[in-house]
Write a structure and sequence with these properties.
heterodimer; A: alpha/beta; Rossmann fold; Alpha-Beta Plaits; nine-stranded mixed sheet; two-stranded antiparallel ribbon; B: alpha/beta; 2 domains; two-stranded antiparallel sheet
């Protein structure tokens, strides 16, 4: 399952971690590689780290006859070629490999460029895997794609998605059985919830909603869910204690143990709704 | 003209609330909502749309089924796993690179332009606003951000407006990079949580990477005063100025529900006072920078 939201800061990571610690024996994958935070709440022992590379073209100037075909082909304008000058604009390259295929002289090779790392760790019977994009690198998706190769199909897997509704979110939710959307009952929360719901409907992924900070804002999220027949899986009230525990890096269900049962129920509901 | 970008790394720290508030303080202003995935600023500034245009940021592969011999070469060569087992294009994965078009032995695949969003140029009470909406699930938000900023800049120049406020998206990836590059000042809005601090550090590194002078403000600082203190110390050690500490106040949510900026809804609140103070710090830093350049 994945946890997404549209709007940032609604409590995705908090919900993901609290489910994980409540059910135990699960794999948690933090796909917010731009700003990964799950490890700050789980405090795992990191056991391995692997670099992640993307393919970037490297040009053999001796073979290149400056025909410019690679530059014309590249949809991302990542190859600048004028006369005898040829430059690779690495940050624009998507790593499709088209220039290598199109070059009539075989002058372009696959080079690799590090965009981040994947870290693996454990805490009790939970496994945490997260990606960390290097600062200044624009593309999160290749790192998320790599991260998802670590999915253990024999386990319950929780994917914590980044905020928003574009490519990094799509890459995260692709192929999941169910998506939990965490929102807050405010106009911003509802607006962005509608956007992410449209994405999930287009992708035919079943979903339900968790309302975090219930009690603030207004009732429009509830009205919307009722009209659209969207299940509200759990409400987490606005409680200063929860906010303070989060600020100190503590999953609140560890201290407020009455929530463990609620998160286990949430998990069982999701299982049932996803027919798994 | 000065470009001020508001960013955070972590989502939900109050970027949009602050940007909206600043827009009431900056005199005549152009505001650019660069969170094109999940834009919210229009809900506080109520722009009156003057002009709309389509954003065609990418292409998508189209397979002509009549010509396709189902050899699967496209599926094998696609780096984005965008060709399904049934040899169909998965629109959510296709990045429009065109590799399949050159690899296909029967020339059954072509690239077609896709409309990935809308751009709006609008009037607001305080000047102008440029905003956009990426179609849900589309790629290329960075490119769309660039289009929003280009239009915002053009209006500011045409109208002789001195301040351009940029409301950035969360994260540090491509749309954020497109939002910050070339700005005169970056205000990072953080919160006193372990995650807020972690993400602040990465956001600061990003500004440093692109040579943008940083300022920091701590929102809801009284949720965890120890962590607020940690942020102050950390920024002090890095020589980064903390422009203000905003207290937690439920009035901010009330203002949002009413669709108003906090400065209009509750001008005498402690939050409004602190925001005015932060704006003063921003203005001072921009004018100092001017002198420095001279």
């Amino acid at each position: 399952m994945s946890i997404a939201s549209g709007k940032g800061g609604t409590g995705k990571t908090s919900v993901a971690i609290n489910i994980a610690v409540s059910i135990g024996d699960a794999q948690l994958i933090d796909c917010d590689v731009e700003e990964p935070n799950a490890h700050l709440l789980l405090h795992p022992k990191i056991v391995s780290e692997e670099p992640v590379y993307t393919l970037v073209p490297s040009i053999n100037e001796e073979l290149c006859d400056h025909c410019g075909k690679c530059s014309t082909f590249c949809q991302y304008k990542a190859i600048f070629a004028v006369g005898e000058i040829i430059l690779i604009l690495r940050e624009l390259c998507h790593g499709c490999g088209g220039c290598i295929l199109i070059c009539p002289k075989g002058a372009i090779n696959e080079g690799k460029h590090k965009i981040g790392a994947i870290k693996r760790g454990h805490k009790d019977n939970l496994e945490l895997i997260y990606g960390e994009l290097e600062v200044g690198e624009p593309m999160a998706t290749p790192l998320i794609r790599q991260l998802k190769r670590h999915i253990d199909k024999n386990k319950n897997v929780i994917l914590d998605a980044p905020p928003g509704a574009s490519c990094p979110v799509i890459e995260t939710v692709k192929g999941v059985d169910y998506c939990i959307l965490v929102t807050e009952p405010t106009p911003f929360g509802l607006h962005d919830l509608k956007i992410i719901i449209q994405v999930l409907e287009d992708m035919s992924i079943p979903f339900g909603v968790v309302i975090n900070r219930a009690g603030i804002g207004d009732r429009k999220v509830y009205d919307y869910c009722r009209e659209k027949n969207i299940p509200i899986l759990l409400e987490i009230p606005y409680d200063r204690r929860i906010a303070e525990l989060y600020s100190r890096g503590i999953p609140f269900s560890l201290e407020m143990t009455e929530y463990r049962e609620k998160f286990r129920d949430l998990f069982n509901d999701v299982r049932r709704l996803a027919n798994k | 003209m000065k470009q001020i970008v508001i960013l955070s790394g972590k989502g939900g720290t109050g970027k949009t609330t602050l940007t909206a508030a600043f827009s009431t303080l900056a005199g005549r202003v152009v505001v650019a909502d660069c969170d094109v995935d999940a834009p919210n600023l229009h809900m506080l500034l109520h722009p009156e749309i003057m002009e709309t245009f389509e954003f065609k940021g990418s292409k998508i592969a189209i397979i002509d089924k009549a010509k396709c011999i189902r050899c699967g070469l496209c599926r094998e060569k696609c780096k984005f796993d965008a060709v399904t087992e049934n040899i169909e294009i998965d629109q959510f994965s296709c990045e429009g690179c065109g590799v399949c078009t050159i690899i296909c032995p029967t020339s059954a695949i072509s690239l077609s332009e896709r409309v990935s969003g809308q751009v709006y140029i609008s009037k607001i009470r305080f000047g102008f606003m440029v905003h956009a909406l990426l179609n849900p699930g589309e790629a290329n938000s960075g490119k769309l951000v660039t289009v929003v900023r280009q239009n915002a800049k053009a209006i500011a120049e045409k109208e002789n407006i001195t301040h351009l406020l940029i409301d950035g998206p969360p994260g540090i990836g491509c749309p954020v990079i497109s939002s910050v590059t070339g700005s005169d000042l970056g205000l990072i809005v953080t919160e006193p949580t372990d995650s807020g601090i972690h993400d602040l550090k990465r956001a600061l590194q990003l500004l440093e990477h692109f040579n943008i002078p940083p300022l920091v403000c701590v929102n809801m600082y009284d949720i965890n005063r120890d962590n607020a203190e940690k942020i102050l110390n950390f920024c002090g050690s890095k020589g980064v100025k903390v422009a203000g500490m905003i207290p937690f106040n439920p009035t901010v949510i009330e203002a949002m529900v009413k669709g108003k900026t906090i400065l209009e809804y509750s001008p005498k609140s402690n939050v409004a006072d602190e925001i005015r103070h932060i704006w003063k710090e921003i203005s001072e830093m921009l004018s100092l920078k001017n002198k420095h350049v001279r």
